[in-house]
Specification:
The structure is a homodimer.
Chain A (H helix, E strand, L loop, with lengths): L3 H14 L8 H4 L8 H10 L1 E5 L4 E3 L7 E7 L1 E7 L5 E8 L3 E2 L10 E4 L3 E7 H10 L1 H27 L2 H16 L10 E4 L4 H8 L3 H13 L3 E4 L3 E4 L2 H7 L3
Antiparallel strand pairs in A: 1-8, 2-7, 3-6, 3-8, 4-5, 4-7, 9-11, 10-11
Chain A binds a DNA duplex (30 and 30 nucleotides) through helix 8.
Chain lengths: ~250, ~250
DNA sequence: CGATAGTTTGACACAGCTCAATAGGCGTGG
DNA sequence: CCACGCCTATTGAGCTGTGTCAAACTATCG
């Protein structure tokens, strides 16, 4: 018989094969670990370690030798690039269950820094290289994430190069909103979320100054399109109007 | 005996195994086809076709179903994104022997357009999918190109978001110069090249207007850092000074 | 030789930057 | 409990870099 109970039981049995560390880990479902067999997960988890870091922690230093990779389990990580005189640009924003690190190269071209409290599951570089040879599916998942990041980077290039300040800020809010709720879009239903970035980070993300970001947020608030509580919490009253402000 | 003659002979014999189309093709050396065996090349080349297109030809339309992929054999291809009101941004620039097309997705998020006279070697989508399953090395090469494109995109994001007009134009000239001659950098030796883009394209690339690009080029010319002949031909007198102007 | 496309140059306007002051939130210590 | 300092965000006033609009110049081609 195949009742709900027996299915649950079987899944339990199956679950017992996978490492404690990995059970209920999002990276195993939507992340790259989904490509691994139970045995591979066991092997990888032996070399893995979880850690929780606070906002502002540097995770990868630019041009530094990379000795480990990570999965993001919760929180937000910003990838930045900096000019000699200190001007900074955020070039990527990653959330759970994204994979963090650049395969094939032993030095990173970007800095990675926790934007919020973030928990990570890290494993040594060598372990990934081995797994990738064993599992073409793993390589494929990493490839697909890289392509997603490339699509996102190009979308931002359009925003950085061709949108004005108001459109940039609206586009940023949409980006975060979509990350929270990939479904709802055209609906008039309210959508609320916490910004994972400070005003300074948002400015670095959009190629603006803190002051301009603040002014544009105020404009959106005055227009009744959003409301802001405690600086970080945003309630979007009307998604369609926000989309209209984003310059499409 | 292993004289130069016998080595040449052996290479000739080996060459005879590979399709006529592929002999002396750059994509077989530095491009993705280098991952394929002689038999695979034969199979792929049967489904491939070369074509030469003029500047301005649209190669991939945004959101259109992608039925083929290509290698760029010569010329330059610009990848663009456009807003509803016509504002345009170049989000990628590709040269021989780059691979053109987005694996795994059946629709492109960008437009691709020939910037100069360009020759391509195209093959159907299905052929690539099959090859990629057969050859992990091919997948890896495509993966590495995607990562290179991602690095380039992020470098441009820094330029778009944080550099001023003068630095942007200098950075663009450096980008092209490096593409022509990846070696020479700090040297004082002159470096000359033709721009693959019109002023309008350069403006779309840098998030500027045609007028600003023109003014900044004039400034570089007046400073004696570059000289310009026939609008398109650039001679960089002193690379170090150009680097200094690029904001690092 | 006129037509067209691409580029340069000039004059002016304004979006967003800079500098500066004010306000709010939060923890620490009296 | 308030006072204080610290950090972040907001708001204001003025300035400047880059966009806009317009005209002139150049090269190429029929």
């Amino acid at each position: 018989m195949t009742t709900a109970a027996s299915i649950l039981e079987r899944r339990d049995i199956h679950n017992s094969d996978i490492p404690v560390l990995c059970r209920s880990c999002e990276a195993r479902h939507r992340g790259v670990c989904g490509a691994l067999s139970a045995e591979q997960l066991v092997a990888l988890s032996k070399a893995s370690s979880r850690r929780k870091v606070e906002a502002g922690s540097e995770l990868i230093a630019n041009a530094e030798a990379v000795d480990h990779y990570s999965n993001i389990l919760s929180g937000a990580v910003k990838l930045t690039k900096t000019l000699a005189d200190g001007r900074q640009q955020i070039v990527g924003l990653q959330f759970a269950p994204d994979f963090l690190g650049r395969p094939f190269h032993d030095a990173s071209a970007v800095n990675a820094e926790a934007a919020t409290v973030t928990s990570l599951c890290s494993f040594p570089r060598s372990a990934l290289a081995r797994m990738m040879n064993e599992s073409p599916d793993l390589q494929r998942r990493l490839f697909e994430q890289a392509l997603r990041e490339l699509d996102e980077a190009r979308e931002w290039m359009l925003t950085l190069g061709r949108k004005n300040a108001g459109e940039k800020v609206a586009s940023f809010l949409l980006l975060i909103a979509r990350n929270i709720d990939p479904g709802d879009e055209t609906g008039n239903g309210e959508l609320a979320f916490d910004l994972p970035l400070t005003r300074a980070d948002i400015a670095d993300f959009l190629g603006l100054t803190i002051e301009t970001v603040s002014r544009e947020l105020t404009k959106l608030r005055s227009s009744g399109i959003i409301s802001i509580e405690h600086n970080r919490h945003i309630v979007v009253g009307n998604m369609a109007r926000l989309v209209a402000r984003s310059g499409s």
